[in-house]
Design a protein that fits this description.
Length: 300
Amino acid sequence: MIKIVEVGPRDGLQNEKTILTTDDKFQFISMLSESGLSSIEVTSFVKPTSIPQMGDAIELFSKVQRDLGHKKISFPCLVPNLQGYITARDLGVKEIALFSATSDSFTKKNVNATVDETFERMKEVVELAKKENVLIRGYISTAFGCPYEGKMDISKLLKISEKFFNLGVYEISIGDTIGVAVPNQVRSYIKELKTNFPINKMAMHFHDTRGMALTNILVSLEEGVTTFDSSAGGLGGCPYAKGATGNVATEDVWYLMQSLGLETGISIDKLAAASKFILDKVNRNTESKFLRAYLNTGKV
Ligand code: MG
């Protein structure tokens, strides 16, 4: 069984210029929740001024909790700090995602802290979350390459993975933030990672910026990874390459798995309907070649 973590509502929409209403975002999540996905990242509890698209986190998560909370689906949310954590857990958030990266230049530009400082900041959140039985997922940005520092060495990824596992995360999500990873690099990094950490606690988060996402996913599968992050319709872009593709599309991942005979539990017509709905709202076409063909022909 392959697990897909749907990041469209958060990672995807965060990188879309059109600011959507809470109702539209909720409708999207509700449609996604019909598709068989077992994990849907909802939002980010950042300061509303810092990321306007995430400004309605309280309202949106409340709706999700009220109307979809009974489903057997995880609805993780990003929390950047203790204040965000407290707001989230008061609303009933049961799983949080924490962020760091392998590059100091990247974290300094994004959150004005070195990588080590991002872990300092997480400590109080982690302590409380563990006490309150809230699951923690660790995101590692720039695992393969950084927009400022270029190619990232495996030693950095190993160090940050260890830091996250020492905190007590149940899984790390290894992010190719700018979509520069290539198959040989992915294979060698995973080989190195799995000699140090359990492979079933690693998820891969690929971007299709340079068209390598599915190939990198195939290599990851061959190395034993079974969890992948993706966004419905390929929602989102790449803030470091204007106009370029961001997250790999969930439909493309679905099609690859289906072609290999691997079960995802996802119903493609429901997923495609959710993607179509949200792509119309942000007024753009999908980046997914499979979805384009599927929407045009109605056939897999
Ligand atoms: Mg992403």
